Amino acid sequence: MCVGPIYVVPRSSPGESFTAVRPTPEYRELSRLNLDEIVHQGRKALDEEDWDQATPLLREAVRRAPFRQDFRDMLALAIEGSIANSDNTRFSLPITEPPMSPPEQIDLQAEKTMMLSADTLNVREPVEPPLFRSGRRASPTVAIPLPRAKDMRRRHRRGPASAILLGLTVGLVMILIAGGVAWVYLDQISRTSAREGTSPGLPPSEVQTILIQANVYRQKGEYSKAIERLLSLPPFTRRDRMLTSIYMDHGDNYLMQKPPLFKRAIEAYREAVKHQPQNTDYVNALGQTFFTLALTVIDDKDSYARYLQQARETFEVVRKQDPENLKALSNLAKVGTHQRDQELQVNSYRMIVEIDPDGDLGRDARRNLESLGFKY
Questions:
Q1: 288: closest CA among 259, 261, 308, 268?
Q2: Cα–Cα distance for residue pair 370/108, rounded to 1 Å
Q3: Which spans in 107-261 are helix H?
Q4: Which end of the chain has fewer CB atoms within 10 angstroms, the N or the C?
Q5: Which residues contact 64 (CB under 8 A, 6 or more apart)?
Q6: CB-count burial class (<10 Å; 0-12, 13-18, 19+) for 315
Q7: CA angle 262–267–273, rounded 5-degree value
Q8: E strand or H helix at 119
Q9: How far is it, in rounded angstroms, from Cα 314 to Cα 292?
Q10: Distance between CA 263 and CA 307 in Å, rounded?
Q11: Quick check: helix, strand or coil at residue 51?
């Protein structure tokens, strides 16, 4: 029947062999406890500064789990406190097995420091190993200065506070991240709402009502009222798109009058271009109106030249935005004809032939070049 581990201890005489003895009742009592119970009782004794009770418990914990640094730290604290009660001298730490029972007693310092591994502490200079009472020296050891009990307790108790601080820091970081994500999300919603017709600062229902009213006025041909309703809204994409379209319809309506109201059409087209200058169709329509107006006042040389120049400048804007815009190039060639600018004519026709060599505009441009005495 197994009654527990057996340890080997030296006899009193240096020349005698070793003998086997059974562990003490105290050790057999510890062997019946599991590791968690031993650590719990050892920590409790450590907090109560019961060094004599804490030392064997924590030594057993270190023996069972030598890889646990926290067990080693608590054992060092217990040993240091135990020795501080007896004397304040430095001592050696033999690396031996758990405490041995009589017939021979191990001296107090060697017994208090067993099972503490020297490789986990700051190793200093080697010292002479302690003597047993029998005169026999213990195994070779090194002198190890242990931390003070107060410092060890402070480090031991600082763990929960550090964990709480870490948790608060992580929580704050998560709140900041969530706030940033929410801000981006709301900004995206605002941009999407603007694209879909929602105006900042006004309820969506009110914005939708104004847009519907403007469209009704547009269908009736009451463009001025439609424009007035839309201008009551702050700028946003859907409003601007609808407003420019109504301005263009308004300008077209002026041109369909008899006689055509060119100047009012030009004003309406200019407003449309102001809101969407990148729309080349709107700019071309404005330039075409200038050109047509110039032809109607051909007898007024000053007005004729002024409107031709305005038409030319407008078509040049289109050509800068879209160098291959055939409508703008064709109109520039016509303006060059009326301004007697042969260079403008030839350059415009050659660009048309290069862009549309097989199309109607390309064939007409080639014939015009030949009529001017030029070849492509």
A1: 308
A2: 123
A3: 108-112, 149-196, 204-220, 223-231, 237-255
A4: N
A5: 35, 38
A6: buried
A7: 120
A8: none
A9: 13
A10: 11
A11: helix
Please say whether the beta carbons of 339 and 308 come within 8 A. Answer: yes
C-alpha triplet 174, 178, 184: angle, nearest 5°: 145
Give the DSSP letter string of 245-275. Answer: HHHHHHHHHHHTSSS--HHHHHHHHHHHHHH
In order, the DSSP letters of 93-106 are -----SPPPTTSPP
Give the number of other CB atoms < 10 A from CB of residue 370: 12
In the predicted structure, residue 12 carries a pLDDT above the cut 80 = no
Residue with tokens 């999407």: 192
Q: Which two tokens stand for residue 222?
A: 């009451």
Q: In whole angstroms, how far apart are CA 32 and each of 3, 7, 22, 74?
A: 11, 18, 16, 21
What is the distance between the alpha carbons of residues 244 and 269, in angstroms, rounded to a whole number? Answer: 9
- Asked if the model's pLDDT at residue 191 lies above 50, the reply is yes
Q: What is the overall mean pLDDT for the chain? A: 76
pLDDT tens-place string over residues 157-178: 555 667 788 888 888 888 888 8
136 Cβ contact list (under 8 Å, min separation 6): 10, 14
Cβ contacts of residue 184 below 8 Å, gap of 6+?
none
- Tell me the per-residue pLDDT of 90-133, one tens digit each, with 9 for 90 and over: 444 444 444 544 444 444 444 444 444 444 444 444 444 444 44
What residues contact residue 21 under an 8 Å CB cut-off, 6+ apart? 6, 7, 8, 9, 100, 101, 102, 103
- Separation between Cα atoms, residue 147 and residue 14, nearest integer Å: 35
- Binned at pLDDT 50, 70 and 90, residue 13 comes out as very low
Residue-wise pLDDT tens digits, 281-302:
999 999 999 999 999 999 999 9
- Strand duo 7-9 + 19-21: pairing: antiparallel
The token duo for 109 is 């310092």
Give the number of residues written for the chain.
Answer: 376
Rounded distance, CA 56 to CA 98, Å?
A: 9
Q: Is the dihedral of CA 318, 321, 327, 329 positive or negative?
A: positive
